[in-house]
């Protein structure tokens, strides 16, 4: 499934979850304290629960993750740097630079997904030949490496163009 780089789902990262331990033998039992009524446990053992939402922005107002900041640039109006005022057609050039940044980040994310898939395969308790062959035969990562190369080259060209227009 392809998601446009301007869509927030394009940069989904791993989700944070905590494991809630099962009740100990010393746990109080009673109405409301049984494992069946406890949202963090089940008769099968511990379950995953979502981590409470953390503040989305730092005290400075700037988000911590590069992916979030890239998406902010795509979705919010921002004034160009004062040194870029008066540069001819700078708005269009910066729009293309921002697009190259997002596309580059997306390619890196997809390559990282392949690496994590490979790591998960190697760490799996049930390592099978057919699973290794399946991951080894996945050539989509090569497409993402090509995309990364193309977007980095485009980004470098546009930055050189921006530098040439600056005073």
Overall description:
- The protein has helices at residues 66-75, 90-123, 129-136, 140-165, and strands at 17-19, 41-42, 45-46, 48-50.
- It is elongated and about 60 Å long.
- 47% of the residues lie in helices and 6% in strands.
- The strands form 2 sheets. Strands 1-4 form a two-stranded antiparallel sheet.
- Helix 2 runs antiparallel to helix 4 (140-165).
- The protein is mainly alpha-helical.
- The protein folds into 2 domains: 8-16 and 64-165, no CATH class; 17-50, no CATH class.
- Strand 2 (41-42) and strand 3 form a beta hairpin.
Quick gist of this model?
This protein is mainly alpha-helical and 167 residues long.
